[in-house]
Specification:
- This protein is 35% helix and 19% strand.
- With 437 residues, the chain is α+β, with helices and mostly antiparallel strands.
- The chain has 2 domains: 241 residues, Bira Bifunctional Protein, Domain 2 (BirA Bifunctional Protein, domain 2, 2-Layer Sandwich), CATH 3.30.930; 97 residues, 3-Layer(aba) Sandwich (Rossmann fold), CATH 3.40.50.
- Strand 12, helix 12 and strand 13 form a beta-alpha-beta unit.
- Bound molecules: adenosine-5'-triphosphate (ATP) and magnesium ion (MG).
- Magnesium ion (MG) binds next to loops.
Length: 437
Amino acid sequence: MTQASRVERVLAVKGMNDVLPPESALVEWLESCACALFARYAYRNIRTPIVERTPLFVRGLGEVTDIVEKEMYSFEDRLNGDPLTLRPEATAGVVRAALEHNLLYDGGKRLYYMGPMFRHERPQKGRYRQFDQMGVEALGFDGAEIDAELILMASHLWQDIGLADVRLELNSLGQPEERLVHRQALIAWFEQHSHILDEDARRRLYTNPLRILDSKNPNLQTMIEAAPRLIDFLGQASMAHLESLKAILDANNVAYTLNPRLVRGMDYYNLTVFEFVTDRLGAQGTVCAGGRYDGLFLQLGGKPTPAVGWALGVDRVLELLKTHAAPTLKTALDAYAIVGDMASLPRVMSVLQTLRGLGVRVQMHSSQGQVLSGIKSQFKRADASGAHYALIFGTDELAANQVTIKPLREAYATQITRSLDDVANWAATLQSDASPD
Ligand code: ATP
Ligand code: MG
């Protein structure tokens, strides 16, 4: 084949990233920290499909939301024309699954999920078209102590993974009736200032005026600052819910700022909403966000069921971890096997299988074109692999039914020789550990 006939490469889709080693180990580590933490709070895993029917999101998230208006990857099922969408978030799917399987028949459920979400956004740092979220949903609980539990759980996660500089912003969106009265006041206020509204704000004025408060347009900020605040329209029950939540956070030394301007992108929220924000990631500073969505079950055809949850942006948390003294993960390899000659491979590989059966992480040197490189170059590879030990299966060693074990990471440690029948005892002395140093 000539150079000119080389086939053109197919590249990844814009905004959808590969996660390669060694960074993938950091993701695995974050996921394992989160799983362990969720288990300590009695949350159990739920796995819903990545593709759902489009109306689930249109009805669930609300027609006049950024996600539904412009960010969904929607397509028709080629066989029957069903409108389908790659999930832009997981809450709607979790609620659908809870309804479909009558999950709450014997009481509330605490659930968590992890996985990819898809939104057609302009790709930039911290904003991708496929991104990972992990999230928790507490279904069937109306008490503010569950809102508090969720927030405590997120703070606990920051501690466990060593994140500093994440602050909590909190607000209450009250109940739909309270929002309706506020909405009228808000529309009246924006009408008074209609001459400065931008196109986005004008479009939302009568459909979703609350979202105008979320505008990033600097020209609108002063007017937005002075707009009627929802919190001033909340009744006693809504205020009491917020006060109970605050009391639990205070008792647990979780600091927060009340931000009456905090609204969320989805329509389904009521009462508590919150965001964990950092200043270290520029404009994409929200690492975790959530709130209560007591109306969503009803909206999706179920009985009224209180619920609350949050979702964490895995990509942003990883970015943030990297701005700290990044946790260096210990190498995953215990040993690297150096092999004297091709004829020894069957025997060497059976010893390695024994070691792996005992939990030892070992990589074997591989041949190229049925030829093994010299011992010296194999040692270089062993060194570069990060393994703690080189296991030398030389021709002489094998003839004596032995292996030489050479520590690679300690300058003054000496090598030892062991009988092949005795490798299990050596393996027992290893302490395998993939946690950060
Ligand atoms: P933003 O205001 O940044 O667009 P959002 O309100 O759309 O966020 P949510 O839908 O609440 O975000 O999702 C929860 C978290 O998921 C966000 O706080 C963020 O950390 C992460 N996230 C959301 N969209 C993206 C994206 N396109 N790329 C990477 N992470 C994202
Ligand atoms: Mg968004």
